[in-house]
Amino acid sequence: APCFPYGLIDPIEKLGALAEKKKLWLHVDACVGGYIAPFVRMNGGDVPPFDFEVPGVLSMSADLHKYGYCAKGASTVLFRSEELRSHMIFDCADWPGGRMVTPTLAGTRPGGAIAAAWAVMNFLGEEGYRAKHRQVTNAREAVEAGVARLGFRVLGRPQLGIVSFTHDEVDPFAVWGKLFERGWFTSLTTEPKGLHLMLSPFHESVTGTYLSDLEWALGEVKAGNEGKKREARYS
Questions:
Q1: Of 78, 97, 171, 173, which has the fewest beta carbons less than 10 angstroms from its beta carbon?
Q2: Phi, psi dihedral angles at 129 (to 5 degrees)
Q3: Which of 231, 229, 119, 212 is CA-nearest to residue 172?
Q4: What angle separates helix 172-181 from helix 207-222, to the nearest 10 degrees?
Q5: What is the CATH number of domain 128-224?
Q6: What pLDDT does residue 111 have?
Q7: pLDDT per position as a tens digit, 77-115
Q8: Terminal CA-to-CA distance of the chain, rounded, Å?
Q9: Does domain 12-124 have CATH number 3.40.640.10?
């Protein structure tokens, strides 16, 4: 929630119903979306149920270093209840050092990243996250509209900060190669071939530049000027 390649949220409600029926543990990987989706919803975004709102969801993971805007080294795993959380705790008494209990398998962890994450989250607060994620979704919507005008096809209906798009007439990898010449080092998808963006608040201010360079790159490829080196590398 969402998947990284396309930024699309799986049908968690249906998976939750299936998990309840089969008495299975359903874990939601919300590492990318866990700290953006709730605030996009608060801003009026159409975000489907994906978390503990779905009865069948028993645990979730959400990375603070992505849309939580914290430094790497502190992440979160969330459980529906304290009883379920107890399964994660490592408790071992069968060794000469006495009983060893840690909340995770990693017994030694630096506290600096955790303290920094706590500071960032308290500094931003609900309103700060809502404001930043409004910038992210504004950037995504601008990119979606812009690439559509250029003849690209957005893959699915992304609702958060990731968008991927392909072109049915030219090789997207060749377009990527031309964009690289303009200083854009972005990601790709392979099935289908496409351009991939994971957007941040800053990108709202440069979407116009990106779309202008994308139009140039597309024109170069259509004119056969993608360059032999790039063509050989990605063919």
A1: 97
A2: -65, -40
A3: 231
A4: 120
A5: 3.90.1150.10
A6: 86
A7: 999 999 999 988 988 888 898 998 888 767 777 889 999
A8: 32
A9: yes
